[in-house]
Design a protein that fits this description.
The protein is an alpha/beta fold and about 250 residues long. The chain is built from 8 helices and 7 strands; from the N terminus they run E-H-E-H-E-H-E-H-E-H-E-H-H-H-E. Strand 2, helix 2 and strand 3 form a beta-alpha-beta unit. The termini are far apart.
Length: about 250
Protein backbone atom coordinates (compact mmCIF):
# COMPACT_ATOMS: atom_id res chain seq x y z
CA UNK A 1 0.00 0.00 0.00
CA UNK A 2 1.22 3.48 -0.86
CA UNK A 3 0.80 5.60 2.31
CA UNK A 4 0.85 8.78 0.22
CA UNK A 5 -1.98 7.76 -2.11
CA UNK A 6 -4.98 10.11 -1.89
CA UNK A 7 -7.17 8.37 -4.45
CA UNK A 8 -10.84 8.79 -3.54
CA UNK A 9 -10.18 11.55 -0.99
CA UNK A 10 -11.78 14.99 -1.15
CA UNK A 11 -9.75 18.07 -0.25
CA UNK A 12 -10.76 21.69 0.25
CA UNK A 13 -8.02 24.30 -0.15
CA UNK A 14 -8.91 27.86 0.83
CA UNK A 15 -7.09 30.49 -1.18
CA UNK A 16 -6.32 27.62 -3.51
CA UNK A 17 -6.49 29.63 -6.72
CA UNK A 18 -2.92 30.94 -6.53
CA UNK A 19 0.45 30.96 -4.79
CA UNK A 20 1.04 28.56 -1.93
CA UNK A 21 -2.55 27.31 -1.94
CA UNK A 22 -2.42 26.37 -5.60
CA UNK A 23 0.95 24.68 -5.13
CA UNK A 24 -0.54 22.54 -2.37
CA UNK A 25 -3.74 21.87 -4.34
CA UNK A 26 -1.75 20.69 -7.35
CA UNK A 27 0.20 18.31 -5.14
CA UNK A 28 -2.97 16.89 -3.59
CA UNK A 29 -4.59 16.45 -7.00
CA UNK A 30 -1.48 14.72 -8.39
CA UNK A 31 -1.69 12.27 -5.47
CA UNK A 32 -5.26 11.40 -6.44
CA UNK A 33 -7.48 13.72 -4.39
CA UNK A 34 -10.46 15.56 -5.81
CA UNK A 35 -9.75 19.18 -4.93
CA UNK A 36 -12.09 22.09 -4.25
CA UNK A 37 -10.45 25.50 -4.59
CA UNK A 38 -12.26 27.95 -2.32
CA UNK A 39 -11.59 31.65 -2.92
CA UNK A 40 -13.22 34.90 -3.97
CA UNK A 41 -11.72 35.51 -7.44
CA UNK A 42 -13.73 33.33 -9.83
CA UNK A 43 -11.66 34.12 -12.94
CA UNK A 44 -8.45 33.23 -11.16
CA UNK A 45 -10.16 30.14 -9.76
CA UNK A 46 -11.24 28.97 -13.22
CA UNK A 47 -7.67 29.32 -14.48
CA UNK A 48 -6.36 27.33 -11.52
CA UNK A 49 -8.91 24.55 -12.09
CA UNK A 50 -7.98 24.41 -15.79
CA UNK A 51 -4.31 24.10 -14.87
CA UNK A 52 -4.93 21.20 -12.49
CA UNK A 53 -7.15 19.44 -15.03
CA UNK A 54 -4.48 19.88 -17.70
CA UNK A 55 -2.14 17.95 -15.41
CA UNK A 56 -4.67 15.12 -15.13
CA UNK A 57 -6.17 16.12 -11.78
CA UNK A 58 -9.79 16.65 -10.72
CA UNK A 59 -10.69 20.09 -9.36
CA UNK A 60 -13.54 22.54 -9.03
CA UNK A 61 -13.86 26.13 -7.85
CA UNK A 62 -16.17 27.31 -5.06
CA UNK A 63 -16.71 31.05 -4.61
CA UNK A 64 -16.18 31.57 -0.88
CA UNK A 65 -15.48 34.34 1.60
CA UNK A 66 -13.72 32.51 4.43
CA UNK A 67 -14.31 35.47 6.76
CA UNK A 68 -18.06 34.88 6.61
CA UNK A 69 -19.51 31.99 8.62
CA UNK A 70 -22.49 31.50 6.31
CA UNK A 71 -20.26 31.39 3.23
CA UNK A 72 -18.00 28.83 4.92
CA UNK A 73 -21.02 26.70 5.85
CA UNK A 74 -22.19 26.72 2.23
CA UNK A 75 -18.73 25.63 1.06
CA UNK A 76 -18.46 22.75 3.50
CA UNK A 77 -22.05 21.52 3.13
CA UNK A 78 -22.03 21.75 -0.67
CA UNK A 79 -18.72 19.90 -0.92
CA UNK A 80 -19.96 17.08 1.31
CA UNK A 81 -23.24 16.86 -0.59
CA UNK A 82 -21.76 16.99 -4.09
CA UNK A 83 -18.61 14.91 -3.55
CA UNK A 84 -19.85 12.68 -0.76
CA UNK A 85 -17.17 13.37 1.84
CA UNK A 86 -14.57 15.78 3.23
CA UNK A 87 -11.23 14.20 4.09
CA UNK A 88 -8.78 17.09 3.91
CA UNK A 89 -9.01 20.78 4.73
CA UNK A 90 -6.17 23.18 3.95
CA UNK A 91 -6.63 26.54 5.65
CA UNK A 92 -4.40 28.66 3.44
CA UNK A 93 -6.34 31.87 2.72
CA UNK A 94 -4.72 34.98 4.14
CA UNK A 95 -3.68 38.58 3.57
CA UNK A 96 -0.96 40.95 4.74
CA UNK A 97 -0.51 44.70 5.08
CA UNK A 98 2.95 46.17 5.62
CA UNK A 99 3.07 49.05 8.13
CA UNK A 100 4.73 49.93 11.39
CA UNK A 101 2.50 48.66 14.24
CA UNK A 102 1.52 52.15 15.45
CA UNK A 103 0.14 52.96 11.99
CA UNK A 104 -2.52 50.25 11.81
CA UNK A 105 -6.12 51.20 12.40
CA UNK A 106 -8.38 48.96 14.47
CA UNK A 107 -10.25 48.12 11.29
CA UNK A 108 -7.05 46.97 9.60
CA UNK A 109 -6.05 44.91 12.64
CA UNK A 110 -9.45 43.22 12.79
CA UNK A 111 -9.39 42.63 9.02
CA UNK A 112 -6.10 40.74 9.25
CA UNK A 113 -7.31 38.77 12.25
CA UNK A 114 -10.51 37.79 10.44
CA UNK A 115 -8.84 36.79 7.17
CA UNK A 116 -5.87 34.92 8.65
CA UNK A 117 -7.01 33.38 11.93
CA UNK A 118 -10.78 33.49 12.35
CA UNK A 119 -11.17 32.00 8.87
CA UNK A 120 -9.14 28.93 9.85
CA UNK A 121 -11.29 28.48 12.95
CA UNK A 122 -14.55 28.82 11.00
CA UNK A 123 -13.51 26.38 8.28
CA UNK A 124 -12.13 23.84 10.76
CA UNK A 125 -15.24 24.03 12.93
CA UNK A 126 -17.53 23.54 9.91
CA UNK A 127 -15.51 20.61 8.56
CA UNK A 128 -15.25 18.92 11.95
CA UNK A 129 -18.77 17.52 11.95
CA UNK A 130 -18.16 15.63 8.70
CA UNK A 131 -14.72 14.41 9.72
CA UNK A 132 -15.96 13.38 13.15
CA UNK A 133 -18.75 11.28 11.64
CA UNK A 134 -16.28 9.65 9.27
CA UNK A 135 -13.86 8.93 12.10
CA UNK A 136 -10.92 10.51 10.29
CA UNK A 137 -9.72 13.74 8.79
CA UNK A 138 -6.68 15.87 8.01
CA UNK A 139 -6.52 19.62 8.65
CA UNK A 140 -3.50 21.56 7.43
CA UNK A 141 -3.17 25.16 8.59
CA UNK A 142 -0.82 27.44 6.70
CA UNK A 143 1.08 29.57 9.18
CA UNK A 144 4.29 31.43 8.47
CA UNK A 145 7.88 31.61 9.64
CA UNK A 146 6.71 35.00 10.97
CA UNK A 147 5.25 32.99 13.85
CA UNK A 148 8.90 32.34 14.81
CA UNK A 149 10.31 35.86 14.41
CA UNK A 150 9.39 39.37 15.46
CA UNK A 151 8.47 41.67 12.59
CA UNK A 152 8.45 45.46 12.70
CA UNK A 153 6.57 45.75 9.40
CA UNK A 154 4.09 42.88 9.75
CA UNK A 155 3.25 42.76 13.45
CA UNK A 156 -0.50 41.99 13.12
CA UNK A 157 0.22 39.42 10.39
CA UNK A 158 2.82 37.73 12.59
CA UNK A 159 0.39 37.76 15.52
CA UNK A 160 -2.30 36.06 13.44
CA UNK A 161 0.16 33.42 12.24
CA UNK A 162 1.30 32.78 15.79
CA UNK A 163 -2.37 32.31 16.57
CA UNK A 164 -2.66 29.82 13.73
CA UNK A 165 0.07 27.69 15.31
CA UNK A 166 -1.67 27.73 18.69
CA UNK A 167 -5.03 27.01 17.07
CA UNK A 168 -3.39 24.03 15.37
CA UNK A 169 -2.12 22.67 18.67
CA UNK A 170 -5.43 23.15 20.43
CA UNK A 171 -7.46 21.47 17.70
CA UNK A 172 -4.93 18.63 17.48
CA UNK A 173 -5.42 17.85 21.16
CA UNK A 174 -9.19 18.31 21.12
CA UNK A 175 -9.88 16.21 18.02
CA UNK A 176 -7.28 13.43 18.24
CA UNK A 177 -9.89 11.15 19.79
CA UNK A 178 -11.99 11.63 16.66
CA UNK A 179 -9.21 10.37 14.39
CA UNK A 180 -8.45 13.86 13.08
CA UNK A 181 -4.87 15.08 12.70
CA UNK A 182 -4.28 18.84 12.67
CA UNK A 183 -0.89 20.23 11.65
CA UNK A 184 0.60 23.48 10.43
CA UNK A 185 3.03 24.36 7.68
CA UNK A 186 5.25 27.42 8.14
CA UNK A 187 6.30 28.70 4.71
CA UNK A 188 9.40 30.82 4.44
CA UNK A 189 10.00 33.36 1.70
CA UNK A 190 7.90 32.03 -1.17
CA UNK A 191 7.61 33.80 -4.53
CA UNK A 192 3.92 34.79 -4.57
CA UNK A 193 1.78 37.83 -5.29
CA UNK A 194 1.80 38.52 -1.54
CA UNK A 195 5.60 38.79 -1.39
CA UNK A 196 6.05 40.48 -4.77
CA UNK A 197 5.10 43.89 -3.35
CA UNK A 198 7.71 43.56 -0.60
CA UNK A 199 10.41 42.80 -3.14
CA UNK A 200 9.39 45.84 -5.17
CA UNK A 201 9.22 48.20 -2.20
CA UNK A 202 12.47 47.29 -0.43
CA UNK A 203 15.65 47.73 -2.44
CA UNK A 204 17.97 44.75 -2.19
CA UNK A 205 15.42 42.65 -0.33
CA UNK A 206 15.39 39.84 -2.86
CA UNK A 207 19.14 39.37 -2.67
CA UNK A 208 19.20 39.52 1.14
CA UNK A 209 16.70 36.67 1.31
CA UNK A 210 18.71 34.58 -1.15
CA UNK A 211 21.91 35.17 0.83
CA UNK A 212 20.27 34.28 4.16
CA UNK A 213 18.59 31.11 2.85
CA UNK A 214 20.84 28.03 2.89
CA UNK A 215 19.02 26.64 -0.15
CA UNK A 216 20.16 29.77 -2.00
CA UNK A 217 16.83 30.73 -3.54
CA UNK A 218 13.27 31.85 -2.91
CA UNK A 219 10.68 29.10 -2.62
CA UNK A 220 7.89 28.54 -5.13
CA UNK A 221 4.38 27.21 -4.69
CA UNK A 222 5.31 23.69 -5.78
CA UNK A 223 7.77 23.48 -2.87
CA UNK A 224 4.72 23.09 -0.60
CA UNK A 225 3.21 20.18 -2.57
CA UNK A 226 5.16 17.42 -0.87
CA UNK A 227 4.46 18.48 2.70
CA UNK A 228 0.78 18.90 1.81
CA UNK A 229 0.57 15.34 0.50
CA UNK A 230 2.41 14.00 3.57
CA UNK A 231 0.14 15.78 6.04
CA UNK A 232 -2.99 14.87 4.07
CA UNK A 233 -2.18 11.17 3.75
CA UNK A 234 -1.97 8.05 5.91
CA UNK A 235 1.79 8.65 6.07
CA UNK A 236 1.15 11.23 8.82
CA UNK A 237 -1.45 9.34 10.87
CA UNK A 238 0.74 9.59 13.99
CA UNK A 239 1.70 13.23 13.39
CA UNK A 240 -0.51 15.89 14.96
CA UNK A 241 0.01 19.33 16.47
CA UNK A 242 3.23 19.82 14.50
CA UNK A 243 4.37 23.06 12.86
CA UNK A 244 6.72 22.27 9.99
CA UNK A 245 8.90 25.01 8.46
CA UNK A 246 9.23 24.87 4.67
CA UNK A 247 11.75 27.65 4.17
CA UNK A 248 14.92 26.30 2.59
CA UNK A 249 16.60 26.50 6.00
CA UNK A 250 15.99 30.22 6.53
CA UNK A 251 14.74 29.83 10.09
CA UNK A 252 17.73 27.74 11.24
CA UNK A 253 20.43 29.90 9.68
CA UNK A 254 22.48 31.65 12.36
Amino acid sequence: MNPFDLTGRVAIVTGGNGGIGLGMARGLAAAGARVVLAARDAAKGAAAVAGIEAEGGIARFAATDVRDEASVARLIDATAKDLGRIDILVNNAGVNLRKQPQDYSLEEWEGLLSANLTSAFLCSKAAYAYMQRAGSGKIINVGSMMSLFGSAWATPYAATKGGVVQLTRGLAVAWARDGIQVNAVLPGWIDTELTAATRREIEGFHQRIVERTPAGRWGVGSDLAGVAVFLASAASDFVTGAAIPVDGGYSVQG
